[in-house]
Amino acid sequence: MTEIRLLIVDDHPVVRTGLIAMLNGFAEFEVAAEASDGLQAIKAVERAETLGQPVDVVLMDLQMAGMDGVTATRRLKESRPGLPVLILTTYDSDSDIVAAIEAGAAGYMLKDADPEKIRQAVTEAAAGRTALAPEIAARLFDRMRSPGISLSNREIEILQLLATGTSNREIARALCISEATVKTHLNHIYSKLGVSNRTAAIAAAREQRIVRD
User: Using one digit for the tens of pLDDT, what is the confidence trace for 41-56?
Assistant: First the structure.
C-alpha cells in the first residue's frame, strides 16, 4: 500500500511531536516533513517536490507566530490547487472556519478529536474529499439554516477585527474598503445581533462563538 506523505505545520514543538508520533503510528501515513509556520510550510512543500517526494496532505494549524495558517493555505492552493490542506486547530469560531474554507482548505478538524477521526479526515482529504469535524459541520449547517440572521463572511471578518481593538479606519485600510462602507457593515451587524454599539457587538459575537476570545 502506498503511504500518504504528510507535512505537519504547528508552531508548538510539543504539539508537532505528538502529532508526528500519532500519525506515524498509522501504517498508511508517513510524516515526511514538519514546519513551525506557514512560510516554512511553503518551503517544505517546495523542498519535497525538488527531492521528487512530494507531500500528499498538509495538516495546518491556524494561529502561528509567523505566517498564519489561512495565509499559507491560500498561497499553497494558488500555486498547487490539487494539494489538500487540512486545518487542524483548537479554534472553532465562525470567523476561523469561514476564513479557512474560503482560503481553500480541504477540511477542518479540532486537535482534541479522537485519533481515529483525524486518521479518517486525513484519508478523506488525500482522496480529494471534504473532511469536517462534526461540530464544524453543525456550525456551517446552522449558518445555512438561518440565512436571515446569519452574518455575511465580510461582516464576520469585520467583527473579528473589531474584537482585536481595530478602529474603523484601520479596518477600512486592512480590507481595502472605505470607512463609510465599514460603518454600513457595522450597522448591519448591530441590527442582526440586536445590539447598538461595538462593545455589545463584540460581546455577543464571542458569546455565540462567531469570533474567538
Answer: 999 999 999 999 999 9
pLDDT at position 111 is: 93
Report whether 119 contacts 57 (CB < 8 A).
no
Assess whether pLDDT exceeds 60 at residue 1. Answer: no
Give CA–CA dist 169/18, Å, rounded.
Answer: 42
d(CA 189, CA 202): 10
How many other CB atoms sit within 10 Å of the CB of residue 62? 24
Q: How far apart (Å, rounded) are the C-alpha atoms in residues 109 and 160?
A: 21
Instruction: Give me the sheet containing 4-9, strands edge to edge.
Output: 29-35, 4-9, 57-60, 85-89, 107-110, 131-132
Q: Give me 210's grid cell.
A: 462567531
Calculate the CA 100 to chain-centre distance. Answer: 3
Residue with cell 441590527: 191
Quote the strand ranges of the chain, DSSP E.
4-9, 29-35, 57-60, 85-89, 107-110, 131-132
Q: Is 108 helix (H, G, I), strand (E, B) or coil?
A: strand
Tell me the pLDDT of the chain averaged across its residues: 90
State the cell numbers at 198.
461595538
Q: Is the pLDDT of residue 113 over 50?
A: yes
